[in-house]
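Tutorial handout. Part one gives the primary structure; part two gives the three-dimensional structure as tokens.
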Amino acid sequence: MIASSMTPEALRDHYPHTAHQTYLNHAAVSPMSRPVRNAIDAYVAERHGADPDAPIANFETFFPVIEETKERVATVLGTTDARVEFVPNTSSGLNVLARGLDWEAGDRIAVPDGAFPTNVYPFLNLEAQGVEVDFVPTTDGAYTVDDVAETLRPETRLLSVSWVHFLSGFRADLEALGALCEERGVVFCVDAIQGLGALRVDVEAAGIDFLTAGGHKWLMAAQGTGVLYCDEGLQDRLRPPTGWLHGPVDWEHLDEYELTFHEDARRFRTGTLNSAGVAALHAALGLYLEAGPAWCEERVLSLSGTLADELSDRGLSRYGTDDPAHASGIVTVTPEAPDALFEHLKEHGITGAVRNRKLRLAPTYYNNDEDLHAVLSAIDSFGR
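Part two.
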């Protein structure tokens, strides 16, 4: 059951696009709910200044929204707001880590093969400093903890994984990987963009040292605003980027330069935030928490599981594992003509995606059985 007085139908009503299309592309970018649009409109209305009482320079009035958004992020991650901060996107978050550690020639980083480039390039860029990247062997995006253990070397300082593989939908066993990294003395980093907002995570229980994600996919907020989590122990080992908001601001002596960092994760904030994006994330997280993360996860896994089974019954081979322990909201199949099938679905008001010559469908918790029926009916009519 949904975790509040909100019914699934009322939740779905927050997404007006459902009246005219079936959207199953949340692994790319998600639609904004009514609360998210209203939050952005309210913020823009203040800055617009048409209302004589609206504070155009609304830094002080918006500050409580920033603080409450961090609290909501912390609740979703299973940590405290002192350990989270905003970033523009996942790449920015990963670069905080990649550029923040003091690397030495001969250090190594492990990354699963076939990861999205976001989780590869920040680390490949360290090769100029003599750092080597070792790729964990994968099959259709899937791998075992033993595969990772065999890839780690005495020189490995960091393991960075995607919580959910962008194409196969393979969900990593974060708890087991966290335990492995603790045993080996390796920093454990998670690119969470394909799971956060759909699946539940407890960063502290999983032993995650660093996690980052953009807000425009399963969190269903806006592009240009994301979050990072940094364990307190790792924070003390990172050299933060600098701007002017990485530490306390002395408004009376702005030209007396003293490089001082905040004691918490605010030290990773270099400058002015994307406040409209924070407003969107605040509203999106509010709706998600009201629905209940446990219910949302159950709903996502139920819909994606049903979809995978039905597509398999129709002879569409799945890319990735069908092991429920590694399931997520992503279902990818390998039709003979993926582009043609994608266009056929589009003609029927259904939005999916083609990646690496495969058809990817990604339902989330506001989707329903009627959406799945629409997809399956369109697929049944393909080629007739």
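Part three, for discussion. DSSP finds twelve helices and twelve strands in the chain. The chain has a mean pLDDT of 96.
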